[in-house]
Here is the input.
Amino acid sequence: MRILAGWLLNLLGWKLVGETPQLNKCVLIVAPHTSNWDFIIGILFKINRNVKLNYFGKDSLFRWYNSWFFKFFGGQPVIRHESNNVVKDKVEAFRKNNRFWLALAPEGTREYRRYWRSGFYHIALEANVPIVMIYIDARKHEVGFGPTIKLSGDKGKDLEKIKSFYHDKIGINAEKKSTIQFKE
Here is the structure.
């Protein structure tokens, strides 16, 4: 499967970049998230790198006929417009598991937003786990691992590190790339 996933990415013109971090626990943020293709590229990248992770998907994706597919690849439905103690639940998952990787798209949608959702930040900070930056850059046709950062608790300072990495990454639909800032 790993070879097939790498071959398909290559066939689609994508280059795999970066080394898989040797971590037991982390929050992975994936950006920019501007297209449905991001999921396909991400799953192929995950398979090729043999990475076991969990991720959130909007609940409307998890229908009776396809929820098995998303769950097989680590998907967990979330109702985005309701308060569900998601941060608390995921912090607890980090505490309970010896190995747990949680991947999130901070933009929360494939459309332009004036800000990123901050849940990933709160989960990583409260669980005391690092953030691994994953990127999809359509201009270079690269998908890969970026740097790993340990959060300081200073949102502004931490967000600047994240911005400095993602500032030049271009999504498949470049005009839909969201502004990297948190809602006040």
Remarks:
- The two ends are 44 Å apart (CA to CA).
